[in-house]
Amino acid sequence: MKSKLIIIALTALIVTSCKKTELDIVNPNQATTQQFWKTGADAQQGVNAIYSTYHRGSLGRWMHFLTIVRADEGFSTSPAPWIRNYFDQFKYDNYNDGLISGLWGDCYIGINRCNQVLDNVTSIQMDATVKSQLLGEAKLMRGLFYYILGQHYGNVPILIHASTPTDYPATSTQEQVYNQAITDFTDASTVLPDSYDANNKGRATKGAAYGMLGKVYMQLRKYELAKTAFKWLIDGPGAALYSLTPNYRSNFLETSENNSESVFEFQNAANPIDSYDNDAGDGNPNNTPDKLNYGTSIPPFFAPRPIGFTDGQAHRWLVWEMLKENQVNGQRDSRIEASFLYDSTDVKGPEFTMVYGRSWNSLNYSNDKNDPIGVATNNTVYLRKFLDDATMNGEVFHSGNNYRYLRYADILLLYAEAMNATGQTAQAYPFVDKVRLRAGLSALSITMPGLNQQAFLLQLKHERITELSCEGHRWEDLARWGDLKPTLGSNDAGFNNFIVGKNEFLPIPLFELDINPNLKQNPNY
Predict the structure, then answer these.
(1) Which residues 6+ apart lie within 8 Å of 51 measured at CB?
(2) Whole-prediction pTM value?
């Protein structure tokens, strides 16, 4: 699958716009849209180019800072002040900085690739079933890009055809953006297959469409509709396709990608000779495609010093939350070890806790006066789920470890939340129990039976922290619950700077406002 999705269709990677000068000369060897969209192979390469968008710098790296470090799960001690300001302190001095504007650009590049497929593949003479599948994949991924834009920028323009130099789309509200995602996910769910053969495993499926459809409805608090979408995966036609893996940590290892718990993953592959922090290179055919990025660069940015830069770290309150309850055998929740590297990742303590083949004690964290955390760095907690410490004693800049964007455990907990929100609290227990039992905990129906709606939601907030900690879902959870407030400063001091009515969204890049008079800046920026 990875080998198929990293095939780059150069003509499908057309940047959304460029300015011609008198020195620009048309390259007679470069394919045009009129030449390219002719065959089924062209259609397949066009869709592969959409998947390739996930390898770009912001989708593959900075998005994780926005969803984890910007939330109350993480913080930054980066020597780069802009990383601390943008992702941890809610201080945005430069709205054009690529750290916060890059995700906007990557998503619209992805949307334009989707739109090129949707505009052109319909007229190609090819196998009708394959054509429907490819169009469905494009629809799902366009919906995903709009979902990400709506989540982080809120009010953004909607484009449903390939962009042209004369396009000046107006700002749409977050609800309108989410509704566009709903339309795309709904359309995709009608044509995508339930599963694929081994050579195509990892492509967008019907389950991914229903899962994402449910997630959008949850953000809109349309819980009945969310239940209907999730039901397809839980006890509907797709129920036999998904199950929780016996080993929780297998969801974060490169050796066990696309498993039974996977609903949708960003397919990453390591390219040892890549030279570009994007998936398109510099336009020089002598440098592409062999030196392109097919993976993610997040591991070295999250890895412990001296292996990585440690630009993002986890707050220790997450560990305390996971220590609140032991397994039925009296042992510690095993998800702690899978989620974090800290002085007691091994329950026996720092002497036995291994960090890329070395003991915690041998790294001398507690006495390193040059560490930006300070002398008492035994308080440090590193994010482990994105790391490759299980397979190597270091990190590469572009890892082949897939990002599990949507797991079945997430679906189960969201389904339980939707049931609780619609007055079916008693019926919601079994879906939480599945997640807890896999972790070795007692069933919630035994330890906390008969919770009312409010108490059950409070417990669900705990369950989502322990199961999904630092996977990129916390920000959307806080937004859905209405919990994005300065009161989170008790978990994360950065939230002392949070301004309600402003910091729920990122600022719209100024360069977009400069060229499009129909766009509006987000409130209070």
Answers:
(1) 5, 141, 203, 267
(2) 0.93
Phi and psi at residue 445, to the nearest 5°? -65, -15
Q: Which residue has the tokens 């048309």?
A: 26
Cis amide bond preceding 289, omega within 30: yes
Comparing CA positions, the residue from 305, 273, 301 lying closest to residue 386 is 301
SS3 468: helix
Task: Kindly give, in sequence order, each residue whose CB lies less than 8 Å from that of residue 364, ignoring residues fewer than 6 positions away.
Answer: none
Query: What pLDDT score was predicted for residue 14?
Result: 38
Least confident of 38-52, 321-335, 376-390, 452-466: 376-390
Distance CA(263)–CA(410), nearest Å, equals 10
- Residue pLDDT, tens place only, 185-222: 999 999 999 999 999 999 999 999 999 999 999 999 99
Write out the two tokens for 185. 């996910």
Tokens 């997640």 identify what position? 435
The 8-class DSSP code of residue 173 comes to -
The set of residues, in sequence order, having a beta carbon less than 8 Å from that of 22 and lying 6+ positions away, is none
Contact 387, 302 (CB under 8 A): yes
Q: What is the pLDDT of residues 93-120, one digit of tens each?
A: 999 999 999 999 999 999 999 999 999 9
Please tell me the distance from the alpha carbon of residue 251 to that of residue 142, in angstroms, as a whole number.
25
Helix axes 174-191, 128-152, angle to 10 degrees: 160
Helix, strand, or coil (residue 120): helix
Residue type, 197: D
Strand partners, 485: none
Assess contact for 285 and 31: CB atoms under 8 A.
Answer: no
Are the beta carbons of 154 and 504 closer than 8 angstroms?
Answer: yes
CA distance 363 to 308: 13
How far apart CA 167 and CA 516 sit, in angstroms, is: 9
DSSP letter string, 354-386: EETTEETGGGTGGG-TTSTT-S-GGG-EEE-TT
Residue at token pair 């749409």: 172
